[in-house]
Write the structure tokens for this entry.
Amino acid sequence: MSEPIPTRKLNTGSEMPLIGLGLWKIAPDTVADSVVEAIRAGYRHLDSACDYGNEREVGDGIRRAIEEGLCTREELWITSKLWNTFHAQAHVRPAVERTLEDLGLEYLDLYLIHFPIALAHVPFETRYPPEWTHDPEADLPVMVESGISLEETWHAMEALVARELVHAIGVCNYNIGLLRDLLNYARIPPSVLQVESHPYLTQEILCRFCREQDIAMTAYSPLGALSYVELDMASQGDAVIDQPVVRDIATRLERTPAQIVLRWGIQRGTSVIPKTSRPARLRENAALFDFSLSDADMAAISSLDRGQRFNDPGVFAEAAFNTFYPIYD
């Protein structure tokens, strides 16, 4: 890429690139190459998590890219996430230190609470990543709650900033009610909210609330169903990029349908973290800043909204983990 990816200034003053590489579901044996190729293509924002099970290999990719002179550490924006089993104050710092060790880093640019779900602690030596169920070998594996409050977890996250282990903190998968509560007790307000958002789930009210509170919003799964078909959590017929309105705009603007949907996400004020391991698609997904969508195009794509959420613990937790665990009304 010839031009750097534009950034969004956070409430900390830091600049977060508007496009990142989502690392969920990229296999450990290929993710290091994907990281190097992404950085070579101009990406500087990598979105990782303990639960993805590939942070050590992501760290290998970061190290290789720096050694090859493709970037410096300071030019990168690395996000990771606190998993559900590490919500207790005593477990938050060890969790981020394990992530830093795996990634080969001294600090994270952003650390997020992955879900507003506090589960019973699973020690590193028992299982890492800890996964969702407390004992996967049980006759009926289930999720086990810990009773830890989100306030306790947030104050432990704030302590990571004081120790300079992370530069900014935020949350994932919070609704407005949880955000309002968080803002009441936070000494450090959240910098970023990362949530599922795409034309089938526009989350307009949540977007407006975040704008008014100066919380940057990052859209995961910005292309909708494509991340979930292989998990049997969506069908190919749910693909936003196959919608006639998207294809018509793509044809008129001589862009791919994926570029149209990602540009829609950027233009409405969110950052996006699409996942791909294909070098050509990496470059395609980042080539969003030499064209724009008209107001009519934006409205037409937004009209696809049907409140369809693909990543919903209230659905998948019962099906996969024998536990009814809704977090959305």
Observations:
- Residues 13 and 191 are 10 Å apart (CA to CA).
- The chain has eleven helices and ten strands.
